[in-house]
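Inputs:
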Amino acid sequence: MPTTPPQPGTPPSGAPERADLARLAERLRAIVGARGVVARPSELLAYSADGLPTYRKRPALAVFPSTRDELVRVVRLLAAEHRPFVPRGAGTGLSAGALAEGDAVIVGLNRLTRILSIDPVNRLAVVEPGAVNVSITRAAGAHGLHYAPDPSSQTACTIGGNVAENSGGPHCLKYGVTLNHVAALTVILPDGEIVALGRADGEAEGYDLLGAFIGSEGCFGIALDVTVRLTRDPEAVRTMLADFTSIEAGARATSAIIASGIVPAALEMMDGPTIRAVEASIYAAGYPVDAEAVLLIELDGLAAGLDADVRRVEALCLDAGARAVRVAHDEAERAQLWQGRKKAFGAMGRIAPDLVVQDAVIPRTRLPDVLRTIHGIAERWGIQVCNVFHAGDGNLHPNIGFDGRDADQTHRVHHAMREIMRACVDAGGTITGEHGVGLDKLEYMPLIFSEASLEAQCRLRQVFDPERRANPGKVVPVHSCREWTIAPAARGMAGAGNGSAAS
Amino acid sequence: MTAAPPPSTTAVTGVYAAGELQELVREASARGEALRIAGRGGWLDAGRPVRATRVLSVAAMTGIVDYVPGDLTLTARAGTSLDEIARATAAERQWLALDPFGAGDATLGATIATASAGPLAHAFGTPRDNVLGIEAVTGDARLIHAGGRVVKNVAGFDLVRLLTGAWGTLGVITEATVRLRALPETEESWALPAPGDGAALDALLARLRAAPLAPLALELVSGALARRLGVGQRATFLVRLGGNADAVAGQRAAWAALGDAASADADVWRALRACEPSRAIVTRLSCAPSRVAGLWTLALAVCDSTSDAIAHASPGRGIVRCILPAGDPAALDRLLAAAARVGATVIHERLSAERWASVPSALAHRLSRAARAAFDPRRILNPGILGPDT
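Outputs:
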């Protein structure tokens, strides 16, 4: 498809760039076909945000390879042109991590969705990066296996995005995060070289470059295929709902369960405002609307011993002040209890036009006092915070509904967010447990890392992407990398770029 | 590839604090002096071809810095021994579920730096799955922190994983935060004779995979090792079951259904960890778990025909670990030939200095070399310990 020539009357300085872009689009079309390149500004709008609506950036182009070979050729073309790019899966991320601006090109992976193989004996699956998380579990289900990490967006998010973000989910309390479930990757580095990281058929020796790649937020390259570990379906599952008249009591119960040594498959908390939002929505799950907190607790594993654990958890909740503990009697009731949790964000969408979901982790013993602090911050700034989160591992998700058209309200939300983040860090926590840094958390990185520690992260990025063309400007604040930018040339390392992509 | 010169370390310098270590590394870096990084020195006799004239020991950097039982996390200085951590956590009915082979006075720092794991890895993974945060001094003397003290954390690039298993070549670990678990309410250990025939072993492993069992550990030990541990006369499975009373009872029944099960002493795991004589040759072979019966059969044939050789395997992880007498290089050749026949991966733990020279570098890939150059530009930290790195 021919591209629109530069319009007459455009400023002279923009013309060469526009011509460059048109040429690049043409070359990309030669690889992926006309329907695989999006170049019209109006169509690029669709890729200008991810799941966090407060950021918008317009990419120069978006390209959607349909095969591994096309993906490799696209990355190599971008390397030859020294063009920055941003890998993107389903765009469900919550840190503004998959946004591109300036001359950066979006490389969309959501057409590479195949499950390449399943090995039920070794409990492995090899999948393409655009495979949707839940599709792996569906494909493995016939063998009594599933893929354990289950972010709330699992029906839409891709495994490639999960690898980039080291995604978690409610069940990672017992089963671990993406890092613990990826055995190997084949990746294409930003310079076009294809490398194998980790291995599935024996131990890997040397540096854990697989571990370093997972959670690198698209800054180290693109996975061509992902070998995931599959988990045996539990023999039995029990889902319970404990209902409390105060957040503190719910937090105490959480601490007591964790300290007891029972590791629930999931231990989720929803506070009063969340409960009421869910119950007022089409996702009503039968939660008690007069409660100030509920814990959704799931125990699973071998059938033997499970009911003893259920009784113990029930007793711990009652001791902590629960009014009642309900155990789901059948699969339908269980699904209903989970629906309220999984759709809580959607339910909160009814309350306000805009919603920001925050993500921070605190030591589990600090839950009661940090939740109290967050409540105080919300009151002081006159905003409504809903808490729905992974209590079992201290991973908070304060949600603030607001109206983005109201400048004053937006301003107050921003300040409250900063204070909440600061309170979590002061409690010994971290600024993100599963959403990643992206653009959104850049300003918080110096709260938890010294300049030397940030600079060390820049060094690691430099190992994978000396030109810093992959997802430029994300994860580590640019100023931390300045010193390192000039260093590679001095060290004589091959491929040292000018680093301008990150500035 | 040229033979590496034998390590000729002369002086040992002990440090007590991260700042002091940073200063020593800074001076060494300025002089271009290579350092051998050590904890309690358990690996110093592993024959690894380190080119260094001075040992820098973190063994005196001991002590638990922070331990909040309710958080199930613990921060300790690098020289703290696993035994000391076990004592402190047992008082709260918790444990750090890492049980690397060797002495219990192994340091936390060395366990992480070498990514050493033992039978408990079956259920709890290796150090990469249990380390939450690391403080380290890089080769150019920068004190850095990676990760944190909470159980879930995706802030920034994952230097924790990079430093874990890097054998000190990217930075000297000075402190680490680890994830703890609650000790099982009750636990018991059982033995079961393993079939000698590969096909029968394969069939039993398939039944094991399908059985309602979630063991804390599952190991297969050779006949010679079984006799030494007092659990049998021939190759034997050892299983460690844990959980509440009902869970253990249910699994005991499932285990007994597999064959002629016999109760084993709880101490068998400690004895297994300590089974290898110092200066022995230790080599790990690995493959996909589905092929481990074949690999085990071949490795066992070598070990059973070598006096003083023992072997054990973690079938769930596809790993066979062979311990051969130091004075019998021919046995190692037979083992390597067997491994090559089935395409198994070979990782050496302990060898003679001469044999190390023919081991391929673990840092052959350009990414590994670039990482080495980025964190230790003058290559003063344990140069050569993972093979040629320039």
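Remarks. Chain A is about 35% helix and 20% strand. The longest strand of chain A covers residues 236-244.
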